[in-house]
Amino acid sequence: MSGAVIIGAGPGIGQAVARRFAREGLPITLIARTLRTPDPALASIGVPITTLQADSTDQTALNTALDEATRQYGTPDVVVYNAAIIQADAPGELSVAAHMDAWAVNVIGALNAAAHIAPAMAARGRGTFLITGGMPEPKPQYVSLSLGKAAVRTLVTLLDQEYGAAGVHVASVTVAGPVAPGTDFDPDDIAEHYWHLHTQPRAHWTHESLHAGPSSKPGRA
Questions:
Q1: Homologous superfamily assigned to 4-216
Q2: 185-191: long-range contacts (C-beta < 8 A, 24 or more apart)?
Q3: Per-block average pLDDT, block size 10, for the chain (221 residues)?
Q4: Which of 91, 111, 148, 167 keeps 20 to 30 A from 208, CA to CA?
Q5: Phi and psi of 189, rounded to 5°?
Q6: What pTM was computed for the model?
Q7: Can you say whether the dihedral through the CA atoms of 147, 149, 153, 155 is positive or negative?
Q8: Cα–Cα distances in Å, from 81 out to 5, 117, 153?
């Protein structure tokens, strides 16, 4: 196995997903805007871990980090794009520049990462590219996030059209509430969706998995 790359490797979903994939023996590359020490629970699993610094809106830096992950472990088995700007903003409240900043993180960073790494997955004939989604229904209290997560769904469709036939499974995990340990939106529960999507047989691929609470965890009736 050539490993999992997590872009946006913060202490919530990012590192929970890393721990989930590490339990299956995959080497882990964490890419974050600021270098951070991996969660001790992740480090204790015993798989190789690389931490790299790159802002998801800096195309050169992100490409360089993805190239370094590939150099160390080969073309990734799975890339998870988990970077986002999560903020409350009403219609007309944000400046154009602030909207563009949110769009760059929430959407364009994912597009750039996929465009850089998915062709190698397609050439190999397999790979998974997952994006953290949200906002199953748009809300006027979260305009920039609603717009960004709607765009993520469209981006998943576009990437599937481009790379799906070559064996690249593109999907999103839609999280329908605020993430916090010990709640209905515990990051460890949410991480199960990423593993489930990655391991789906090709004949049964889905392109969105919704986490709306414990009953929506994969494997629950």
A1: NAD(P)-binding Rossmann-like Domain (3.40.50.720)
A2: 185/211, 185/213, 187/12, 187/13, 187/15, 187/16, 188/16, 188/19, 188/20, 189/214, 189/217, 190/13, 190/16, 191/13, 191/16, 191/17, 191/19, 191/20
A3: 90 94 95 79 84 96 98 97 96 97 97 98 98 94 96 98 98 95 95 97 96 77 36
A4: 91
A5: -70, -40
A6: 0.95
A7: positive
A8: 8, 12, 13
